[in-house]
Amino acid sequence: MRKALTFVLVALLLMSTFMVASCSKGGSSSSSGSQAKTPAKEKVKIQIMVGFGTGTDPSQIAVHEELQAEFNNTVGKEKGIEIEFLTVPYSDAATKFTTLVAAGMTPDICGPVGVMGVAQFIDEWLDLTPYIEKDKIDLSVYDDQLVESNRYNVDGQSKLVGLPIGYYPSALFYNEDIYDRAGLDYPPEEWGTADWTYDKLYEQARQMTLDMWGSDANDPDFDMDNVVQYGYDGTDWSPWRAWVGKFFDENGKSVALGMTDDYKTATMNSPEWVRAFAELERMIYKEKVRPRSDAAAGASLFGDADPLGSNRLGVWETFSWMSYAFESWDANFSWNIGAIPSMDGHVVSATNIDTFVMCRSAKHPDEAWEVYKWLFSDKVYSRLNHNYGGIPAMKNLQAQWLDEQKAERPNINWQVLLDAGAYADNPNNESWVPGYSEVWNEMEFAMASIISGLYDTPEQVAEDLNDEVQDILDEYWASK
Predict the structure, then answer these.
(1) Is residue 131 within 8 Å of residue 109, measured between CB atoms?
(2) Residues 6+ apart with CB under 8 A from 189
(3) Domain spans of the chain?
């Protein structure tokens, strides 16, 4: 009896083992006989919003689509990540972004975006410092000034919100034909030469500024209400901070932000700010080398073209993103690029910088960082930079950029733009301050009052501006 029982138990044990083995090979007890499948792990989708700056043209979108497919089929497949570029027209970008954030659908990455776009939504960006330190990202591959332009001190906390994808420095773009007719030496190619000052630039500009009777701005009979050619157009097409950023206090610190380090007290009535307004007044009304914006000054002299493109301007201080006009300039006159002069011993190139930022309220920051690193890998970075037309902030790609420019226009001083990176303004001319948009508008209004002639004195302009900005700061901090 015991043997029979043992036999039955062994048989049952063997049957049980067989059934377990069958299940482990994907067997099923269902009547259909189909195999049970383990659900595939769902990929994390990382959305990259484009629209805060360049990147929205059809040819640029095509490059993004190529990169999207490439990532998804290689790195993304390995890491379980899928990227999607979301392109929004520039005019709709701010509203679209705000709507997505409010709906809990924040994109993971935004870019390319300039300093102004960063500043407008400063609280929405993630500090990249912990990720950079964890992965030991070498920041020395970029120009230091361009990295620091993406570092912000917001409400007492410092954060690095992005790495520079490309930059657009300002320089002097000048009409060689007009210089030649005036018998003048061209602006120097080298930055920081001792004798190249704004006083020297004004001296040249006066000889290139002509009224309809042929008198230049040095002539006592010069008629500033009937000018047919100007010598210098200041920092036209640039914000006020592009000009005031050239002025420094007695400790050698830029006064560009116009407020104390804690952002609580406006200092836009300081001697340095008054001096900046006075210099703007000087170039228009005393040196007479830059147009006013009132009707008597012939504000339409430059027409619909950019100032230099009108062929009625000697030299224009502006950003290198004017490259879209180069072809037109080529067809109408000889032109070149020179270094910006010094102001009281300081040389500053107001600079626009593009970056990519990671969104603080997005749901997948770790995966977004993996995408971010891929975007900033050498080969992808180079393709993105070509796509946006900036100068690469990654130093090992700058020689290649220089060769490409020389191949297309061999007579232009392209090295001037590369060397400008060492003189980039810091704080940047678009840097964040509390009450950003309101403060910006007040500064632009103050600048416009000088250019239009609708002001009493530079001192009064500075005082009025300071009062308005202090009210904005007080309101900002009261809401905290």
Answers:
(1) no
(2) 337, 338, 339, 413, 415, 416
(3) 44-167+352-423, 170-349+432-478
Angle at alpha carbon of residue 127, lines to 321 and 49, rounded to 5°: 50
CATH topology of domain 44-167+352-423: D-Maltodextrin-Binding Protein; domain 2 (3.40.190)
CA torsion sign for 339, 343, 347, 350 is negative
3-state secondary structure of 262: coil
Angle between helices 365-375 and 378-388 (to 10 degrees): 80
Mean predicted confidence (pLDDT) in 332-347: 97
For residues 396-424, average pLDDT: 95
How many angstroms separate the CA atoms of 87 and 67, rounded? 14
Architecture label for domain 170-349+432-478: 3-Layer(aba) Sandwich (3.40)
Q: Is the distance from CB of 224 to CB of 453 less than 8 angstroms? A: no
Tokens at 161, concatenated: 């919100």
- Tell me what the pLDDT averaged over the chain comes to: 90
* 8 Å CB contact between 277 and 464: no
Q: E-assigned strands of 28-161?
A: 44-50, 81-87, 109-113, 151-154, 157-160
Q: Is the peptide bond before 112 cis (omega within 30 degrees of 0)?
A: yes
- The answer to whether 44-167+352-423 and 170-349+432-478 have equal CATH topology is yes
| The two structure tokens encoding residue 47 | 């959305």
Q: How confident is residue 4, by pLDDT bands cut at 50, 70 and 90? A: very low
Share of the chain above pLDDT 70, in %: 90
The CA distance from 447 to 297, in Å, is 17
Neighbour-count burial of 271, counting CB atoms closer than 10 A to its CB (0-12 exposed, 13-18 middle, 19+ buried): middle
- Name the β-bridge partners of 337: 173
Instruction: Give dist(CA 221, CA 213) in Å, integer.
Output: 10
pLDDT tens digits along 101-132: 999 999 999 999 999 999 999 999 999 999 99
Residue 71 has pLDDT above 70, yes or no: yes
pLDDT digits (tens, 9 = 90+) for 283-311: 999 999 999 886 555 456 787 778 999 99
Of 251, 248, 250, 270, the C-alpha closest to 259 is 270
